[in-house]
Amino acid sequence: MKRIYLDNAASARMDEEVFEVMKPYFCDLYGNPSSTHSHGRVLKTAIEKARKTIANRLNAAPSEIFFTSGGTEADNTILHGVISNYSISTIISTEIEHHAVTHSIEHICKEKGINRVMLSVDKKGNISLNALEEALKAHPKSMVSLMHANNETGTLLDIQAVSDLCNQYEALFHSDTVQTVGHEPFDLQKTKLHFMNGAAHKFYGPKGVGFMYIRQGYAIPAMIHGGSQERNLRAGTENVAGIVGMAHALEKCYANLEAKEKHLWALKNRLKQGLLSNFSNICFHGETEEGKSLSTVLNVGFDCGGEEKMLLFNLDIKGVSVSGGSACTSGSLIGSHVLSGMNADPAYAMNAVRFSFGIQNTLEEIEDTIQALKEILH
Ligand SMILES: Cc1ncc(COP(=O)(O)O)c(C=O)c1O
Fold it and tell me: Global pTM?
């Protein structure tokens, strides 16, 4: 059976060209980048070239990019770091952030006695800019952490408007941009957020490597202590192959952004239309239109009259790999903190599926997926 992979928001298949670029850094170029001899210097040069590539694509300075082991480490380092370096009294966020953010915030607030303001979101997962402004007015010296795109629903934040508001009220703004780096264009000279992060495996690079962006003039302490790598901000011998692969993957994504987006939107729109014409009992969780949502994610809820259809399991049996918007195990429980944060209708959320697309997917695979769903649900 030919399997169909529609779980690219969890991790995308690595581009083979990226793998080729990484290969020399395993066996041929094997020094330590911190060594001052030539074996080390070659690697240091490769790391700095990768930093420059990533910075250029974001319109940032290379000195504002710091390599990490991925998105989670970057979220943790930024959130903990900002709280320890700045006198922040309130963190403003939402319930629907990735757990790397929600759990970090919970931990910080409990440990440091910091006030937490959770903005509510509408049925599509949007915050209200007015509510954000009111919160910023009421809580000076805040840190704001709002994700650029939700990984379960694909709903996009108006990152420019949030950035402008945070600067107007002198709040520090962190955006978890793990789902948008490599997918949405960034101009950090225009969008003056203070902290953001990326993870290579979400844009056809390797797993286990990512980066944080820290705007010039802002500083946070290290979370991992040891050597002086990454200008004392992230100790540990660098994942050179990963860093080089990440930069190449990012470069390739942005070089082909228009064609890539066109293909992904064709896949997403075809699935959306195909589902609407074959099923009367569905809803879409989150925004689904271009400009308001990611091309890579479509979260669908099926109302099956209160019956749990084990869609992930049944799709898997039919050869389709997807994730759930809901991990519920019984009755009306909504397992996804994102869907419950959006007050999703339990009738639909009980059988929710996140389809997430990648450049390797084809329209034929979308047709096969619709057929598989028809066989399971009709
Ligand atoms: C929005 C978001 N933030 C953070 C992460 C964590 O990234 P990583 O898997 O690289 O630690 C993910 C991964 O699923 C994500 O989607």
Answer: 0.97
